[in-house]
Amino acid sequence: MAQQVALVTGGGAGLGLAIASALVAAGTTTIICGRNEEKLAAAQQSLGPLCHTRVLDVTQLAAIPAFVAEIIETFGQLDVLVNNAGINYKKPFTEVTDEEFQMVMSTNLNAVFAMSREAAKAMLQQGSGCIINISSMAAQYGIPKVIAYSASKTAIEGMTRAMAVELSPLGIRVNCIAPGFIYSDMTAAALNSDPERKAKVFGRTPMGKMGQPQDIGSAVAFLASPAASYITGVVLPVDGGNSIGF
After folding, report:
1. What sections of the chain are H helices per DSSP?
2. Which residue windows are coiled coil (predicted)?
3. Which of the chain's ends, N or C, has fewer CB atoms near its CB within 10 Å?
4. Is 182:13 a contact under the CB 8 Å cutoff?
């Protein structure tokens, strides 16, 4: 993977930072993009010289073609795209506004389509490439109060399969990772403040614990590597068994 160039959206913090860290550890030149320049700079400092940053709001769809073209011009190639950037509103179904629903879909779905389309154009010229989308347990089963998020992530899984069928014969593998409940200060605080929800999460997770951000990073690094060269069109749960738990 040392000869590869990767782009991670939403790479300045959280899962995106863990994904970028795993790719950098594998020797991959990794560009992280996001809206917060300070977070990106801090991430770059922690990841070292293989990490590069670009400021981008992925909902500005008209800016994406020029953005990807600049990446290709600067780095000469684009081998791996990780569509990680995403947002969520936790609200009762009847209180979600049209604007909120559309914002989630714009960030979590429309931007993934536009970014993947432009990356695929470059990868087709190379004759190879790898696109990895990030889904969620919200696409595996019903979770209350996240209707827009659930809709967007369910669509991501369908789009992953459709993209794989169309692009894999041309040398581009397309896969998806569905994280389970992954530890962060925010998720830990949310579960600790809601004992009933916490009991439900751990009760249906056979491994009995939350995952760590690096678990997602490792899965991405695997799917991006030659070790996964015959894997395409899959949705890989990284969830401690949560999606099959009882």
Report:
1. 14-25, 37-47, 64-75, 98-105, 111-126, 147-167, 185-192, 195-203, 213-224
2. none
3. C
4. no
CB neighbour list of residue 244: distance below 8 Å, 6 or more residues apart: 206
Q: Is the pTM of this model over 0.90?
A: yes
Is residue 141 annotated as a catalytic residue, yes or no?
Answer: no
| pLDDT tens per residue across span 26-72 | 999 999 999 999 999 999 999 999 999 999 999 999 999 999 999 99
Encode burial over 90-107: b for 16+ CB neighbours within 10 A, e otherwise: eeeeeebeeeebeebbbb
Q: Could you tell me the sign of the dihedral formed by the alpha carbons of 154, 156, 157, 161, in that order?
A: positive
The residue among 228, 9, 216 whose CA lies nearest residue 118 is 9
CA 97/CA 45 separation, integer angstroms: 39
C-alpha 15 chain-centroid distance: 8
Domains of the chain: 5-182+214-237 (3.40.50.720)
In the numeric block, which tokens belong to residue 85?
């950037």
* Chain segment 153-168, per-residue pLDDT in tens: 999 999 999 999 999 9
pLDDT > 80? residue 13: yes
Mean pLDDT, rounded, of the chain: 96
Ramachandran quadrant class, 10 (left: phi over 0; alpha: psi -120 to 50; beta: rest): left
- Residue 74, pLDDT > 70, answer yes
Q: How many CB atoms lie within 10 A of CB 43?
A: 22
Nearest to 20 by CA among 51, 49, 41: 51
